[in-house]
Model the fold of this input.
Amino acid sequence: MSAAATLMWFLTLVFDTFGQLALKAAAGADGDGLAHWKAMAKDKWIYFGVSAYVIEFFVWLAFLSMVPLSQGVLVGSVNILTVIIGGRIFFKEALTPKRIVASIMVAAGVGLIGWAS
Amino acid sequence: MAGQAKMRPFYLIGFLLLVAFDTAAQIGFKFSATNTSPASFTPEWILSVICEKWSYLSLAGYLGAFVTWMTLLKTAPIGPAFAASHLEVVTVMIICVTWLHEKLTLPQIIGSLLIVGGIILFAVAEAEIEEPIELGTTPDAGTV
Done:
């Protein structure tokens, strides 16, 4: 990959991971049902999360204009690992050996399908 | 552990719904893209996408997936949930092979098995973990 493509790949990882973690933070709002949605609508994190995805959409398009789709999906599958690491750091989620192996299996599977397509 | 066991039907139904919405959105994209091809980003092309009925399946799929995802995330851990949501890759591939007669290769089969195997392993791991439900609570002991 060129330096520009590598930078774009890095940015997709940053925005994808940040977006997911922001949505998780927003989902922790109080209440059930409609009250939960009203609480989320007042939470800044849901807007950060959605904004990160809008930005990531364009960064992903820019990245795919530089590399073949198969290569893009292959290296993009790393986001599964960055989100699970982010979950550990920011939400104190358990990172057991089984979860680590499971994450690697899913990421490898997505990468393999992307590479083969 | 009792709490986790109680949540299992919620997670199962939630993830099946999520995968169904995501799959519907991708199939909608495929048909919409085919019917409005070639993509030119001109006002005429954008109008043809807006008038294309399959675009609305994608929109409905995305909205449904967003609502389902945010509902799941209230209690589900983000790391395993995000990884498990990639089951969509397998369901879209199955529909592409059965409905759209796309070719299935050996690496795709192996990749699908890895994804399904990884998600089963996540389910096994969940049974052993008592995850903090609310933000800021103490995580389980014995984590890395």
Summary: Chain B touches chain A through 46 residues (CB under 8 Å). Residues 133-144 of chain B have pLDDT under 50 and may be disordered. The first helix of chain B runs from residue 2 to 35. Chain B has one domain: 2-128.
